[in-house]
Input
Amino acid sequence: MADRHLEQLLSILKSSGADAWEVTDTNELGWEFYFIRHRLDQHRTKAVDSFSVKVYKNLEEGKFLGSASAQIAPDASEEEMRRTVEGLCRDASYVRNPFYTLNKPAEAETAETARMDMEAVCGDFLRTMRSLPETETEDLNSYEIFVSEIRRRFLNSEGIDVTDVYPSSMVEAVINARKDGHEIELYRLFHSGTCGRETLTRELAEALAYGRDRLAASPTPALEKADVVFSTDPAKELYLYFIDRLHTSMVYRGMSDWKTGDTVAPDNLTVRAVKTLPNSSGNTAWDAEGAPIRDLTLIDCGKAVSFWGGRQFSQYLGLESSFEANNFAVSGGTESAEDLRAGDFLEVVEFSDFQADPITGDIAGEIRLAYLHQGGSVTPVSGGSVSGNIRELLDGFRFSKETRQYDSLLIPAVTRLQGVTVTGAGNE
Output
């Protein structure tokens, strides 16, 4: 939002009767490319301003705090802004949350503010996509590239006025595989800061190979209880289970019964919230409520040691210096990826959907492609499902010392669970 409009809004907020307020002004500069195979279909640049405001009302002599929020058009007139703020103040008076206070100004390390070289980053993406190991039977059907520089300014009534500038990129790709008159499509979506050429190449090369193997896959046999290996994107869900259960909103609402000092994970598992990860799209100095982001250990050798989360629920738990983390790193593996792939097991690399419920710990997913390692042979299989419960599988929860990064999450490259239920194709 232009400075003049921002000053108008701040003046309106200060005279509105709101007891507190927050304003977020986000400007996104982006380049977009749309390809059919490797032919450029269209491209465009964009400059998008998004502007949000949240107002708070103290109720019943500070016993409760009501809030309401809305988006405001960056070209809104002063009268339109005034009507919006008046409506928010009215709406906030109907909300009854236990009272809490907003973040106050605090020190943080300066965020990276150098302007992004959009042309160079886009060039990296274009060269990477054109260099993929396509064949006559496995290739890219289409893909889209989105590269953005985001400038986010946050202000509140307590005096915070901070700005983050960071890159955010995305690639959507549709892969085709063909064999004997049959054809399938695989969809991929990748997020990153700028172009991580090595990572993107590896991910898409794997997808090309998975498309080929899907067409040669046999039905998954009913294995009943088996060792299952996770080595691709769905593995994130296993570790997000541990991360999510330490979020202050989960703990306050009773959806997580974890307490600091509890043993909640394998005794070699360590989880940290980290301020930065290489090429993550979440490398910001401040969270969305103006709290400084820092490194924080959440789980240390299997024991819960810290909670994390936004201001409201953190303060309800008595935490005054918490924050909403963007990046997480998991470590502590003592075995190699090669060792975790020894013996008989099922390595599932493609699910139609895979979920780990952060409340119950239940895991489930339908298999699109897996590799059955049995008696020294490897067979691609498809169909059927895996299921189990993380809590019940902790004793057989093993993970590699090698790691793999998925944008803002760094996790073990290979995870092996013992005793997972595997239902065969046609027997769900």
